[in-house]
């Protein structure tokens, strides 16, 4: 965040999700984007919340610095033995026999809108509103416009930007078309959102005697033939690396990482840690500021400090990243843990509009639950106000429910008890147990994030 030491250029220390590079933004003037975002954000509730988050990150970093300063040479020796044992065990688990693809549709929502309305082709386009953008096409990204950015900031960066409201029925239709293609290559493919999926093509490659790269090209061509849309694909020995690879040659491209340990370690040696799923802004800041770690390979070099400062599970994850390891198995079917749906809209105190949004998501939740024959009896309402305050309220019912009427009735009571409020996003998440659905969690949130509609959605 900005400080007095930044002089006449306070925006240089103002780092938000809006200023992180995405595919198609390589040539963007980052400082110009930072300056615009800073000038249009300062004084807002979002700006104040970013300051609070930055203060929180700073405190965590200071605490880690203090812990790091207390580590003795004997401690380092001890934790290095622990780290070496961990890495030895992890290395023994390396599996180079599988070939995984990660397919990522290119600017999916925007591409669907352009496919339906060809007049939009070649024009900077954002799906969303002046309040929030779900996604932006590559023409818009050249100006620094990206998903999760408020539309009024995007319009400042790109005055010619065209806004199209989201249509999830349309996106779901095209998503289903892509999944029919995935099914042909891997009946057990893993869909992580409407526009992303992991496909295990090991058997296809062995049966047909072709490479993962050939399968990727064939899959991309088939998706284009079936949908008129393009996707980018990453090919790698595990899912973690396949996802990283799918982002390298976007849009409409592919990247193959061979099933070879030396190739994997060379790839990891210069890979920025932020490219790894699970390493976000806070973790990146802590690793960089405290341990000087900016690439995945450096995780191994600082393995003793990682084991000394972080939990068992976190250190295992960081060291796995440093070794280029990721999951290679296909998860067996499990009872679904959650279903959620969210809607972003302009911040409002209009109670009639809030109840209207509540009605819409209650209907979506009910429809989703009926499709999977699920029901539950605990309803939780989570509220995030315009000032980013988070509240959570819940009610346990006498019977299991899944109808829109029941969901809306109980959720409305929880919402009513909290009014007046100013909200800009509503959503909900049901949680499952072996006895079908135990909890219906109905979220009402304000989030500065991309508008998404799928499973397990968080800011």
From TrEMBL:
GO BP term, pick one: DNA replication
PROSITE patterns linked: UMUC
Requisite cofactors: Mg(2+)
Family annotation (InterPro entries): DNA/RNA_pol_sf, DNA_pol_Y-fam_lit_finger_sf, DNA_pol_Y-fam_little_finger, DNA_polymerase-Y, DNApol_IV, PolY_HhH_motif, Rev_trsase/Diguanyl_cyclase, UmuC
EC number: 2.7.7.7
Pfam assignment, any one: IMS_HHH
GO MF term set: damaged DNA binding; DNA-directed DNA polymerase activity; zinc ion binding
Keywords: DNA damage, DNA repair, DNA replication, DNA-binding, DNA-directed DNA polymerase, Magnesium, Metal-binding, Mutator protein, Nucleotidyltransferase, Nucleus, Transferase, Zinc, Zinc-finger
Main location: nucleus
UniProt entry tagged with the keyword Transferase: yes
Subcellular location: Nucleus
EC category name: transferase
Keyword Protein biosynthesis annotated: no
Residue ranges constituting the UmuC domain according to the UniProt record: 100-280
Domain of life: Eukaryota
A cellular component term, taken from the record's GO annotations: nucleus
Reactions accelerated catalytically: DNA(n) + a 2'-deoxyribonucleoside 5'-triphosphate = DNA(n+1) + diphosphate
PANTHER family (UniProt xref): DNA POLYMERASE KAPPA, DNA REPAIR POLYMERASE UMUC / TRANSFERASE FAMILY MEMBER
Family indicated by similarity: Belongs to the DNA polymerase type-Y family.
UniProt protein name: DNA polymerase kappa
Naturally occurring in which organism (per UniProt): Acorus calamus
């Amino acid at each position: 965040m900005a400080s007095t030491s930044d002089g006449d250029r306070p925006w240089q220390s103002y780092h938000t999700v809006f200023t992180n590079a995405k595919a198609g933004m390589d040539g963007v003037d980052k400082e110009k984007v930072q300056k615009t975002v800073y000038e249009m954000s300062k004084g807002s509730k979002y700006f104040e919340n970013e300051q609070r988050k930055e203060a929180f990150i700073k405190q965590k970093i200071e605490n880690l610095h203090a812990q790091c300063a207390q580590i003795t040479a004997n401690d380092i020796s001890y934790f290095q033995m622990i780290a070496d044992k961990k890495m030895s065990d992890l290395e023994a688990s390396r599996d180079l026999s599988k070939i995984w693809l990660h397919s990522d549709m290119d600017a999916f929502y925007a591409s669907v809108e352009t496919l339906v309305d060809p007049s939009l082709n070649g024009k900077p386009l954002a799906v969303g509103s002046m309040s929030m953008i779900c996604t932006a096409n590559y023409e818009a990204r050249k100006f620094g416009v990206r998903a999760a950015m408020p539309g009024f900031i995007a319009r400042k960066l790109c005055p010619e930007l065209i806004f199209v409201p989201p249509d999830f029925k349309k996106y779901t239709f095209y998503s289903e078309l892509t999944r029919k293609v995935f099914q042909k290559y891997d009946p057990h493919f893993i869909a992580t959102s409407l526009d992303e999926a992991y496909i295990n093509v090991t058997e296809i490659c062995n049966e047909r005697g072709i490479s993962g790269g050939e399968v990727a090209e064939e899959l991309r061509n088939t998706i284009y033939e079936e949908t008129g849309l393009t996707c980018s694909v990453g090919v790698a020995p595990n899912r973690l690396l396949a996802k990283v690879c799918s982002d390298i040659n976007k849009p409409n491209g592919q990247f193959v990482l061979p099933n070879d340990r030396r190739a994997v370690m060379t790839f990891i040696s210069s890979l920025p840690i932020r490219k790894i799923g699970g390493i976000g802004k806070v973790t990146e800041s802590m690793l960089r500021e405290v341990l000087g770690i900016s690439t995945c390979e450096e995780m191994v070099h600082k393995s003793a400090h990682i084991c000394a400062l972080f939990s068992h599970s976190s250190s295992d994850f960081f060291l796995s990243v440093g070794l280029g390891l990721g999951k290679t198995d296909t998860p067996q079917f499990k009872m679904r843990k959650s279903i959620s749906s969210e809607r972003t809209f302009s911040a409002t105190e209009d109670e009639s509009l809030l109840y209207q949004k509540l009605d819409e998501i209650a209907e979506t939740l009910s429809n989703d639950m009926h499709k999977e024959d699920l029901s539950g009896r605990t309803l939780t309402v989570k509220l995030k106000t315009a000032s980013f305050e988070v509240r959570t309220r819940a009610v346990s019912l006498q019977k299991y429910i899944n109808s829109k009427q029941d969901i809306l009735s109980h959720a409305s009571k929880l919402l009513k008890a909290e009014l007046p409020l100013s909200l800009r996003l509503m959503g909900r998440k049901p949680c499952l147990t072996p006895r079908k659905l135990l909890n219906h969690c109905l979220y009402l949130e304000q989030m500065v994030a991309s508008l998404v509609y799928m499973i397990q959605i968080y800011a």
